[in-house]
Design brief:
Elements lengths: L5 H47 L3 E4 L3 E4 L11 H10 L14 H10 L25
Length: 136
């Protein structure tokens, strides 16, 4: 097998990425009209479902349209929310997601000779990025 030099590989990669971007843009444009019409139909179906007082409309031939409800929560005042957690006998973890801030863990490792906080694992991922040269 012949090994290609890195400059040639980068040139090929950049060309392929550009073609991919063109195809993605073209498909986005092609799909815009369909997406808009689907949104309009979806809005009308929601109106019809709400008018029935139910949460779905069934079509024997084509399926069922259903409205589902979910909520997303955000905190507008962390100090107030933290005080609520302290004053009430609630486990804070039932209100918070269980995730770690990677930047804080990285900083901890840098400050502690590569050691991790107890109970923490890390997963490193290598990612290749290729940039076009800047034009001067």
């Amino acid at each position: 097998m012949t090994t290609l030099d890195s400059a040639k590989l980068i040139r090929i990669y950049v060309k392929m990425r550009d073609v991919k971007a063109e195809i993605t843009a073209r498909h986005k444009e092609e799909l815009a009209d369909i997406t808009s019409k689907m949104d309009t139909i979806g809005t009308e179906l929601k109106k019809q479902i709400i008018a029935t007082g139910g949460d779905s409309i069934k079509s024997k031939e084509f399926g069922t349209a259903t409205i589902t409800e979910s909520i997303k929560a955000g905190c507008s005042d962390w100090a107030e929310f933290t005080q609520f957690l302290k004053e009430n006998d609630h486990d804070p973890l039932i209100f918070l997601s269980k995730s770690l801030k990677a930047d804080a863990i990285k900083q901890y490792m840098e400050d502690n000779e590569g050691d991790l906080p107890p109970g923490v694992n890390i997963f490193k991922e290598s990612k290749l990025s290729i940039r076009k040269p800047t034009k001067t």
